[in-house]
């Protein structure tokens, strides 16, 4: 067993000697502020979408003339690409800032910004691939489409595909992991919630962020969240769940791209 892993939920590195993260209420408050910043990023992305893209300008004129925005706007790939890119670039530094405000502990230690040897990388990325394959197998056995309709609609509507790939594979994992498996987990696990409560709360919070999916897909996401947080705790590194999250999203994006370009 690697020195970076332990047989329990606790990480291998020694307990934080220099200081502890924020407590429960401060962690909750700062996490809500980060989510508020995320909502602001969505508003900014929508503004950019209305101003820059031809479809956005046409939709803006439609809204200004008194018509309501179509529900398909929530599945517009270009808007999602802009929003995901902005979130991935702007919000991780906010998580670092709130960690830095806690004196006595460095942001690197707070968030788990530490590398690990090659073996854990291979092990956990392999586990992630097995999870993806298993998830698809269960989906197929249930008679459900491997590619959710939401993802297909988003991919078909995007103007510039590389931006959507960046938003999904880089932007979303960076923002979501820095918040849930980084900042929030660190604070909640050393609060009255303890490690089990922190795992459950952060996994539920991450799942709830994905309102575009149905209950079965959300159940699968919750299980993926548990796997990501377990990898974070066992390795002591946030980089591992970021990479696993990115690999999972790459898998899903490849599937939707294959369906749209080759199977339709």
Provide an overview of this structure.
There is one protein chain. This protein is an all-alpha fold. It has one domain (24-106, 116-262). Helix content is 72%, strand content 0%. It contains ten helices and no strands. It has helices at residues 24-52, 54-64, 77-100, 107-111, 118-141, 149-157, 161-189, 194-208, 215-235, 239-262. Helix 1 packs antiparallel against helix 3 and helix 5 crosses helix 10. It is globular. Residues 1-8 and 12-17 have low confidence and may be disordered.
Short description:
By secondary structure, the protein is mainly α. The chain contains ten helices and no strands. It has helices spanning 24-52, 54-64, 77-100, 107-111, 118-141, 149-157, 161-189, 194-208, 215-235, 239-262.
Topology:
Elements lengths: L23 H29 L1 H11 L12 H24 L6 H5 L6 H24 L7 H9 L3 H29 L4 H15 L6 H21 L3 H24 L2
Q: Give a count of the beta strands, DSSP E runs of length 2 or more.
A: 0
In DSSP terms (H or I, runs of 4 or more residues), the helix count works out at 10
Domains, number? 1
The percentage helix is over 70%
Shape: globular
């Amino acid at each position: 067993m690697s020195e970076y892993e332990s047989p329990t939920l606790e990480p291998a590195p020694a307990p934080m000697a220099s200081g502890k993260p924020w407590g429960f209420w401060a962690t909750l408050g700062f996490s809500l502020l980060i989510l508020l910043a995320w909502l602001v990023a969505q508003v900014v992305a929508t503004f950019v979408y209305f101003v820059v893209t031809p479809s956005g300008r046409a939709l803006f004129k439609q809204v200004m003339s008194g018509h309501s925005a179509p529900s398909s706007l929530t599945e517009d790939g270009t808007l999602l690409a802009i929003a995901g890119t902005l979130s991935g670039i702007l919000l991780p530094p906010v998580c670092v800032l709130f960690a830095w405000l806690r004196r006595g502990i460095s942001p690197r230690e707070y968030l788990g910004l530490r590398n690990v040897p090659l073996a854990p990388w291979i092990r956990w990325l392999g586990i992630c691939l097995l999870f993806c394959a298993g998830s698809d197998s269960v989906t197929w056995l249930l008679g459900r489409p491997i590619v959710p309709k939401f993802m297909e609609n988003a991919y078909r509507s995007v103007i510039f595909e590389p931006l959507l790939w960046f938003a999904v594979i880089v932007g979303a994992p960076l923002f979501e992991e820095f918040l849930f498996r980084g900042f929030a987990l660190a604070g909640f696990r050393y609060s009255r919630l303890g490690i089990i409560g922190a795992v459950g709360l952060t996994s539920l919070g991450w799942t709830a962020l994905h309102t575009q999916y149905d209950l079965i897909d959300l159940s699968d996401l919750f299980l993926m969240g548990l796997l990501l947080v377990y990898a974070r705790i066992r390795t002591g590194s946030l980089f591992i769940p970021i990479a696993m999250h990115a690999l999972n999203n790459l898998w899903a994006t490849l599937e939707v791209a294959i369906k749209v370009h080759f199977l339709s």
